[in-house]
Amino acid sequence: MLTAVGCLLALLALPPAHARETPAPPADPAEMTALADRLGDDRTGGVHYENGRLVVAVTDEAAAETVRNAGGTAELVARSMKDLKAIHAELDQLGWIGNTSWGADLSANQISVELYDDVPAADRARIEAVAAAHPGAVRIERLSGTLREAATPLHGGMTINNGSFNCSAGFNVQGNTGNKYLLTAGHCVRGGYYDWYHGEGSTYVGRVIDWNDRPGDWAVIDYRNADVTPYGTIRFRDGTISQIEGSRYARLGETVRRTGATSEDMSGTVLDPDRTVNYIDGTVREHMIETTLCMRRGDSGGPLFIGTTALGIASGALELDEPCSDSVVGRSFYYPVQRLLDAKSMSVF
User: Fold this and answer.
1) Residue pair 219/211 in contact by the 8 Å Cβ criterion
2) 342 included as an active-site residue
3) Can 187 be counted among the known catalytic residues?
4) Residue 148 — very low, low, confident or very high, per pLDDT cuts 50/70/90?
5) Which of 229, 257, 291 is the last residue of a domain?
6) Is 327 among the residues known to form the active site?
7) What is the C-alpha separation between 275 and 284, in angstroms, rounded?
8) Catalytic residue among 80, 83, 168, 187
9) Does residue 16 belong to any structural domain of this protein?
10) Which of 102, 115, 317, 318 minimizes the number of CB atoms within 10 Å of its CB?
């Protein structure tokens, strides 16, 4: 039992209040992120929370000391952000593989791959080959279920209709305010067909807010009341998806591709990047692109592109008796998408 004197001695032994150790304030997320940025992708493995603590992953002791000196918590890891990004990009190069997802799990210093139901064996093998090339860096999890978008996706090349006939979606673009729009052919709007749908006419795409049909051939559909989700991509007839990352004017002699609601995907050659076209019902003279590609009714408005670059909006073509294919040399014409984007202060996304 402590006596009064003992209690007094115990109190005297305590350090003064100002000398007692106080917990360090939590690291500021913005400051730690900026610090990781300064260290660079080759020396850090990213910033993440672990059990409520903010952790900066680093690849060397000197970087760890820098983090500690700044008041942060450091963790030594095997792989840098540069490494993780490279593996992520390698998986992206596999292209579209339905019912999968992948990305960096910074807390595990790995790339996490999720495989849901019914991923074909050949595609699983392609993913597993990437994982095998980077031992310990890729974690593959098998999960049940099907990945579906919350709203109907709309990609360039897909069918749109006005209740009477079909055209094709061209490119999804955005304005300076971030609003999303769909580009298609102006002659599709002829006759007052301003409201457009997808599927069997039940999924609302949007309303035409601007268009021209002679001397141009373009239309702008506003997505703001749409029942679809626009993506900055092209959907091919086999179901695969390709991102569109830029736009420019076409060049003489280059090999280009087109897709649409009616014809198969095809490749052809630009014969003239600046041509006047005299259709049987009028003239389009705003720098039209002429190609060797074949086109059918319903392909109007569809995208002409090269790689990930948007070039044109399908306008018209020479009518042929035989089905379209890469072996058929035709003539088709496209409105230059860059001309329209420049005029409307829009861009692909």
Assistant:
1) yes
2) no
3) yes
4) low
5) 229
6) no
7) 9
8) 187
9) no
10) 318
